[in-house]
Structures are given as C-alpha cells and as structure tokens.
C-alpha cells in the first residue's frame, strides 16, 4: 500500500495524496467516489478526507442475494449458510458504516431494510447476471420507493458478493442532504511537521500531531 502511494505521488508529481482503506461493496464505493468528486469540486480538495468520512456515514447498501455461501464481507450465521443450500432461498443484506446484517428473506413478501423515501435519499441499482431484479423492485415499491436508476454492474461485484445472483441498491444523500453535509467544514491549519494545510488532527498527510501551543 505504501509503495503504491509512493508510485502515485511520483506519477502525479504531488505529495498531497493519502490512502484510506474502505471496505464497501463496489456500487457503494463508486457512488461515494462520485459524490466526493462533486463535493470536492465545490468545497476544495483540502477537505476531501472530512467529506469522505461524512459520506461514508450516510451511504447505505441493501442487497438481495440467493446464496450467502461465499459472502465473506458480512458475518453470516451458520444457519443461513445451511439455508443457502436449499433451492429457492433468498437473503436480504443491509450495510452501512454503523451496521452490517444478513437475514433470510421471503420471495413472496420481499423486504429490504429501507429508510422512508423522502427528499433526503436517492437510490441506484446494479444487478448480477442472475440477480432477481423483479423481486427487489417489488420490495422497493412496497416500501414506497420509486424504481431506482439502474447502472452497469462492476466487474468486482461478483467477487464482493460471492455470487452473480445478487441485486444491490445503494441509498445515498440527495443534493440537498449533500449540501447539509458540507455546511460546516473544519478550519484548515498548517501541520507543524509537513507544513501542509490539513483539516484533521493528527495531520491527514503525515499522521503527526501538532504540539499544542505553550505559553510561559
Ligand atoms: Zn503533516
């Protein structure tokens, strides 16, 4: 990771780059990256890390899987692994910065863990080759959500979900909610160690704490 950072810093001819490990499903990652790019263009790159943190607190994923046998990113109880072996099984996954859960689901009455549809949220959907999109759209409709925009699936998604029998829906803050997210950003200060303007303490670039001012 450190070597990769050195290469990118060198190729971009700047040291103002950091690596932040983020374990999100591919669609959530792409959605957060798109929102980040838009907000950073408005607010300035110096606040990228703070804005990304706030976005990650908001972005949620709900997914419909037909097997959880190879799902490695969410803790799956043994009884659900066993259930995966039964024909016709289905599972609802809910993921956010605060929680991750998987539960057995019923195709006749599909339920996803969705917030109320109001002006705070938008949704985007991607499906694996054998994903049951009709059932997910039924779950969205019964929860009061309109049909979401569909985007092409990431090639990395099958690996992440452990199956091509998945449908993922990412809920992300609307334009108005994004404006609220960046309404109060921290004041930048110059790091005593690397001299770069940082919004965080310790410094986002070098990780050092600036010594507190002392008065005698
Ligand atoms: Zn620094």
Beta content comes to 15-25%
Please trace the helix and strand order, writing H or E for each element.
HHHEHEEEHEHEHEE
Rg value: 20 Å
Count of beta strands: 8
- Helical coverage, percent range: 25-40%
The chain-level mean pLDDT equals 87
Shape-level CATH architecture of the largest domain: 2-Layer Sandwich
Q: State the secondary-structure class.
A: alpha+beta
Overall geometric form: elongated
Strand arrangement in the largest pleated sheet: 3-2-1-6-4-5
The small-molecule ligands in this entry are: zinc ion
Q: How is the biggest beta sheet arranged?
A: 6 strands, mixed
- CATH level 1 class label of the largest domain: Alpha Beta
The CATH topology of the largest domain corresponds to Hypothetical Protein Tm841, Chain: A,domain 3
Number of discrete helical segments: 7
In angstroms, what separates the terminal alpha carbons? 43 Å
Q: Outline the low-pLDDT stretches.
A: none
Q: How many domains make up the 3D coordinates?
A: 2
Summarize the topology.
Blueprint: H1 2-12, H2 26-43, H3 48-58, E1 60-65, H4 78-84, E2 91-95, E3 100-104, E4 121-127, H5 133-142, E5 149-150, H6 157-161, E6 166-173, H7 175-181, E7 189-190, E8 197-198
Parallel strand pairs: 4-5
Antiparallel strand pairs: 1-2, 1-6, 2-3, 4-6, 7-8
Bound molecules: zinc ion.
Zinc ion binds at residues 191, 193-194, 196, 198, 203, 205-206, 208.
């Amino acid at each position: 990771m450190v070597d990769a950072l050195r290469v990118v810093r060198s190729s971009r001819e700047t040291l103002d780059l950091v690596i932040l490990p983020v374990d999100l499903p591919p669609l959530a990652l792409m959605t957060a990256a798109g929102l980040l790019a838009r907000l950073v263009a408005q607010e300035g790159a110096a606040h990228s890390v703070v804005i990304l943190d706030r976005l990650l607190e908001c972005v949620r994923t709900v997914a419909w899987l037909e097997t959880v046998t190879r799902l490695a990113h969410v803790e799956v109880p043994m009884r659900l692994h066993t259930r995966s072996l039964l024909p016709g099984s289905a599972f609802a996954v809910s993921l956010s910065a605060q929680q991750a859960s998987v539960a057995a689901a019923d195709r006749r009455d599909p339920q996803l863990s969705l917030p109320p549809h109001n002006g705070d949220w938008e949704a985007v959907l991607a499906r694996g080759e054998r994903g049951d999109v009709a059932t997910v759209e039924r779950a969205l409709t019964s929860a009061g959500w309109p049909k979401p925009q569909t985007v092409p699936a990431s090639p990395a998604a099958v690996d992440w979900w452990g199956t091509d029998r998945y449908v993922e829906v990412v809920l992300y803050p609307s334009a108005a909610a994004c404006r609220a997210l960046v309404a109060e950003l921290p004041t930048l200060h110059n790091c005593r160690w690397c001299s770069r303007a940082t919004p965080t303490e310790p410094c986002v670039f070098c990780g050092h704490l600036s010594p507190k001012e002392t008065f005698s």
